[in-house]
Write a structure and sequence with these properties.
It contains seven helices and no strands. The chain is mostly helical and 159 residues long. The longest helix is centred in the last third of the chain and has 23 residues.
Length: 159
């Protein structure tokens, strides 16, 4: 017997013994009905559409223009490495994918050194976007990236 089926049997036994099996099944049925009633999202299609995509330079400059002026000693995040790193963030929002699976930009992928820099930058950007309470600059950047991801997904889904 597999571990999975033994856990299922254990859960079923516990639910029956506690008299909550019916409540549990009703809750599952309600969740299933809600999921089936909603729109179907083709995440594979989104991943394919964004397989070689990176945030366009013009759009990156437009996003940067909306950010507050830095008052600290930190340098701005306007360089091209950050543009490519935030492209991975937008990819994760559009595809509901994991950051580690975001495709490396095609012009970087063949070069191990450039790929390592991109991976490090991607990791840094994701870190700062997760800790926006401590980084107001990234706190202002995050909703702009999420808006761009939403716009992008709508365009892909309409095709």
């Amino acid at each position: 017997m597999s571990t999975r089926s033994s856990y299922t049997q254990l859960l079923n036994r516990h639910l029956r013994a506690s008299g909550t099996a019916r409540d549990f099944e009703q809750a599952l049925d309600a969740i299933t009905a809600e999921l089936l009633a909603g729109p179907t999202i083709d995440y594979q299609r989104r991943r394919e559409a964004l397989a070689t995509w990176t945030l366009e330079t013009e759009n990156w400059q437009h996003i940067l223009a909306q950010l507050p002026v830095l008052t600290s000693h930190r340098k701005p995040i306007s360089d091209d490495r950050r543009r490519l790193a935030v492209s991975a963030y937008i990819w994760t929002r559009a595809t509901e994918g994991e950051p580690d699976f975001a495709p490396c930009p095609p012009h970087i992928a063949p070069d191990p050194a450039l790929r390592a820099v991109w991976t490090r930058e991607r990791h840094n950007v994701f870190h700062w976007l997760r800790t926006t309470d401590y980084q107001p600059y990234y706190g202002a950047l995050k909703p702009l990236l999420e808006d761009h991801a939403e716009h992008l997904t709508k365009a892909i889904d309409r095709r």
